[in-house]
């Protein structure tokens, strides 16, 4: 099969489903790059909050001299919002960033498939659910793929383009070119639990937790060694505190379940204990470290 | 200034780095090269032949010298009456001679009053090394210098219950004299960085084996998606795939847990001598960097 996209026109209108942190971030980078963006959520309050989030982010960037007035005007011009899914009918690409719930996503994709044009690509920003399972709910799984952005979207360069079991090569190539047009660096991965980053990073946390559990080193020593001898920007315990120990634990559990309890991905009792204690990291003021 | 005896593979990138830093610090450096690495020796070893034949005769009665005579077991002539630091920096990949080799080396070498034996803890704990060499147990300090392969300057140190305070002090002083910071860590299998890196590489290798993505995309994803300083596969090539595989085997045997089993892809690469930068190919190819000595090993299989 040809690796070249089959004469796919550049994407001009993008629909975004979900105006949370990820949805708003994706809407912002699309609008900044010159696409028309329709941001959808189920309630006006949610889309308003998403829009405010985008403009606040840009204002902060302006204060730091990284964003110009022209950038802000372009985003304002390109961005519109809706609480009606029909508002996405004209999009050439829809990116879904709804909550991580398979039933919800499958239902959404079935609805979207009916209202958009036949050639419109339907992408999910899921980080933990199967693209194959989402696509499997539709009649046209060849145009369903993953487009996994990283938080914070405007700053993180990486986008994982995920190929479901039935995703077509054309869909993948179009999404790859689209990610490049946003100034991102796309990588292509087959639809497997955790894709690349959330899978390959598991041992960074898993081994650190086991080392801590063996009680031969404290968290600060493990972090210091990995930063100073390893060159990692942050140690695993600092990073878990930043991400949220609950969030990290949930990702670990999801990969572990998806691989039928492969022992490499097994969560550690310390994680669960921290979550049970309500010590979730920076957001609660205490995790592996204390934050005043 | 101290007398330093370095024991390892001259093709290992750590070799040049240690020699340079030792010389900068004004230390006197001697070398001991593993018999099976003889052919890679960066200097002419013929002048030692006489000395070696004598040693062989002395030793043959008491030790099983299973390695071939054509590989001279001792290019190192103990130039100094004593050494302050005996530092092995290669984990011995040839298990059949490893124990004999270490025992032999230590017997032939006299240590100074505060002398220390530094052993790499990639595939053994300090406690294990101490139990294998009880006469020297108080002198043995374990270390990991894995960070040095990617330009870091911090070394992990570990001690057994038998290690003397003087030996640990000597180890710290030695590394500090080379401009390297030390951090004392617990004596657990694979210490901290080797264990973490080996498991990251194993996971990346498993994703590669399953064809989830290309090696380049796996490395790019880890650098840009989670800020790793080097992608795990390129990192493995720097450190040596053989070394990381040994770390995994060690973890696997110490913990008896499935999670540590090395991926078959790692074993395959090791058997093909695709160990990384040091042999010119690992997960990636390094055409310009093939050193002369290994070029002859890889010459028959022409690569594109």
Explain this structure:
- The complex is a heterodimer of chains A (about 290) and B (about 300).
- With about 290 residues, chain A is α/β, with parallel strands linked by helices.
- Chain A is built from 12 helices and 8 strands.
- Chain A has an 8-stranded mixed sheet with strand order 3-2-1-4-5-6-7-8, sandwiched between helices.
- Chain A is globular and about 60 Å long.
- Chain A starts with 12 loop residues before the first strand and ends in a 15-residue tail after the last helix.
- With about 300 residues, chain B is an alpha/beta fold.
- Chain B has 11 helices and 7 strands.
- A 7-stranded mixed sheet of chain B has the order 2-1-3-4-5-6-7, with helices on both faces.
- Chain B is globular.
- The termini of chain B are far apart.
- Classes of the chains: A alpha/beta (about 290), B alpha/beta (about 300).
- At the A-B interface, strand 8, helix 7, helix 8 and helix 9 of A face strand 6, helix 6 and helix 7 of B.
């Amino acid at each position: 099969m040809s690796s070249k996209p089959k004469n796919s026109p550049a994407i001009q209108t993008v629909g975004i489903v979900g105006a949370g942190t990820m949805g708003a971030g994706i809407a912002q980078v699309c609008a900044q790059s010159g696409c028309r963006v329709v941001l959808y959520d189920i309630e006006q309050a949610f889309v308003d909050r998403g829009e405010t989030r985008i403009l606040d982010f840009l204002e902060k960037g302006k204060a730091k001299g990284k964003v110009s007035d022209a950038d802000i005007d372009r985003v304002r011009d390109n961005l519109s919002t809706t609480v009606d899914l029909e508002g996405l009918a004209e999009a050439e690409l829809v990116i879904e960033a709804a909550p991580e719930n398979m039933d919800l996503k499958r239902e959404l994709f079935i609805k979207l498939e009916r209202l958009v044009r036949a050639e419109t690509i339907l992408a999910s920003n899921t980080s933990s659910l199967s693209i194959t399972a989402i696509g499997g709910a539709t009649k046209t799984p060849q145009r369903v793929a993953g487009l996994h952005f990283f938080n914070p979207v405007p700053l993180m360069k990486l986008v994982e383009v995920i190929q479901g079991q039935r995703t077509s090569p054309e869909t993948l190539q179009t999404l790859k070119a689209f990610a490049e047009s946003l100034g991102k660096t796309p990588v292509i991965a087959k639809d497997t639990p955790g894709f690349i980053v959330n899978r390959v990073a598991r041992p960074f946390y898993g081994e650190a937790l086991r080392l801590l559990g063996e009680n031969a080193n404290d968290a600060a020593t493990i972090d210091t060694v990995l930063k100073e001898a390893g060159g990692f920007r942050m140690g695993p315990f600092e990073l878990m505190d930043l991400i949220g120990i609950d969030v990290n634990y949930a990702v670990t559990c999801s990969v572990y379940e998806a691989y039928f309890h492969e022992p490499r991905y097994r969560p550690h009792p310390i994680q669960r204990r921290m979550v049970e204690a309500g010590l979730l990291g920076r957001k609660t003021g205490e995790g592996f470290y204390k934050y005043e | 200034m101290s007398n330093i005896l370095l024991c390892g593979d001259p093709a290992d990138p750590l070799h040049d780095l240690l020699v340079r830093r030792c010389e900068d610090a004004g230390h006197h450096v001697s070398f001991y090269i593993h018999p099976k690495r003889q052919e890679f020796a960066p200097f002419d070893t013929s002048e030692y032949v006489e000395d070696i034949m004598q040693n062989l005769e002395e030793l043959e009665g008491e030790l099983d010298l299973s390695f071939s005579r054509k590989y001279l077991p001792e290019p190192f002539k103990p130039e100094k009456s004593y050494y302050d630091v005996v530092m092995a920096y290669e984990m011995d990949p040839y298990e059949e001679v490893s124990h004999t080799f270490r025992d032999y080396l230590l017997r032939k070498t006299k240590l100074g009053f505060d002398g220390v034996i530094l052993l790499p803890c990639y595939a053994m704990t300090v406690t294990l090394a101490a139990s294998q060499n009880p006469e020297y147990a108080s002198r043995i300090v374990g270390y990991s210098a894995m960070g040095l392969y990617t330009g870091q300057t911090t070394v992990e140190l570990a001690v057994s219950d038998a290690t003397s305070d003087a030996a640990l002090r000597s180890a710290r002083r030695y590394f500090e004299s080379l401009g390297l910071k030390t951090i004392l860590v617990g004596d657990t299998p694979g210490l901290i960085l080797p264990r973490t890196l080996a498991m990251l590489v194993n996971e990346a290798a498993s994703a590669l084996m399953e064809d989830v993505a290309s090696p380049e995309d796996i490395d790019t994803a880890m650098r840009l998606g989670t800020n790793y300083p080097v992608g795990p596969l390129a990192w493995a090539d720097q450190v040596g795939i053989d070394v990381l595989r040994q770390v995994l085997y060690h973890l696997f045997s110490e913990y008896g847990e499935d999670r540590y089993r090395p991926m078959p892809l790692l074993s395959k690469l090791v058997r093909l001598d695709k160990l990384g930068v040091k042999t010119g190919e690992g997960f990636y190819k390094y055409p310009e960097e093939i050193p002369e000595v290994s070029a002859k090993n890889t010459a028959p299989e022409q690569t594109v």
